[in-house]
Amino acid sequence: MVRHVAAGIDGSPESLAAAHWAAREAVRRGSPLLLVHAWQWRPHPSVPGSAGVSPQDWAERALARTAAGVRTAHPGLEVEERLVAEDPVTVLLSVADGAEAVVLGSRGLSAAAGFLVGSVSQRVVARSPRPVVIVRAGVGAASEHLPVVDGVSPEEIPEVPYRDVVLGLDVGAAGDEHVPPDELVGFAFEAAHLRGAPLRVVHAFGGDGADRTGAPPGAGAEPLAEHARAVVAALHPWREKWPRITVAETVTEDRAADELVRAAAGAGLVVVGRRDRGSGGGGHIGPVTHAVLHHVACPVAVVPYG
Question: UspA domain location, by residue (predicted)?
Answer without folding.
Answer: 1-136, 176-304
